[in-house]
Please model this.
Amino acid sequence: MTPEPTVDPQAVVDLLGVLAYGELTAFDRLADDARLAPTLAGRAALAGMAAAEMGHFARLCARLAQLGADPEVAMLPFVEVFDSFHATTAPSTWLESLVKAYVGDGIAADFYREIAGFLDASTRELVLEVLADTGHSDFALREVRAAIATDPTLVGRLSLWARRLVGEALSQAQRVAAERDALAMLLVGGTSDLADIAALLKRLTNAHTARMRTIGLSG
Amino acid sequence: MTPEPTVDPQAVVDLLGVLAYGELTAFDRLADDARLAPTLAGRAALAGMAAAEMGHFARLCARLAQLGADPEVAMLPFVEVFDSFHATTAPSTWLESLVKAYVGDGIAADFYREIAGFLDASTRELVLEVLADTGHSDFALREVRAAIATDPTLVGRLSLWARRLVGEALSQAQRVAAERDALAMLLVGGTSDLADIAALLKRLTNAHTARMRTIGLSG
Model:
């Protein structure tokens, strides 16, 4: 039997804090982007994705409270990185907002899956539960594929946009890792081995590239 | 035994359409206003209210689909009135946005309660179910009362704001009633008696005045 991994309690609070603030800003951005929708159905779909983020947010905050942590305090260290990320990646068209929702949803899911193994049983359960609540980006997938089928010249511009999103996300993630030691250690399974970090980034990047192919863009 | 009320099917579609679009715009406005929050807790509270509106929205759309109506088509006639209402009542401060959330939530609940009696059993059940999911405006109530206790000079300005909200809402409601005959008839229980309409408005206004007293403002 594998023993329960030993996890630094501050790292778990950091992790739940970063996830919670990530959900809150995702809500904010999706709600904002919903206004770019050309149809009421599109607007409702993005607003529905936004609402789902608040469901996750509430669960993450409840877990923080259970651990004796103030959710607001746990989120504060991550406010600036998320706000910078969203400020530098504000979509200027409806299709850009759908690509952002799709890319963000996918990377978030992969990330949740990667870290689940390093957590104590009950935090892991919560993380997997939030992860299981997916399928919200199917709408984005369908719409973007249909748009590309109608106008193949979109591929170049939207692929470039997706690359910019991932680049910005990685650069903000590096900032977090540099500033929050315990969290960074947790994310690589308690080792500070650079090869492990590289392998994690490689897995996330490969999965992202596969998703880009699925939606019809180049990675 | 009282017989089931006979309801014009177009009126029910109109009603569900107006409620659905009302929820979608309420989502939009609450999500927007959440950004005025001075704290993360306040921002999360308003974002949570917004997310709850999308839950109602999904239920209303499902019922429209069940009745064979396209939710988008059902909502379209009401887009302009709601959009004008929100355009003319955009809060300029956090407290104004809380008063708007509180006033809007209260009037919507009263309105749902008023019409429930005129509906067929299964639409009534849905309307009451959506109505039961309240309590989201407790946060607004608490915050506004606390702010007034600290600075009583706020009472005058916020009372004026609340009166403006209700005035705008009534003027948009009159526009809807004038344009959608079947819906207007449904709302007054199948009579076009002016005394009944006046009585309905009186009940809504009295309930609003009582809520204003509760939050510490003048009606």
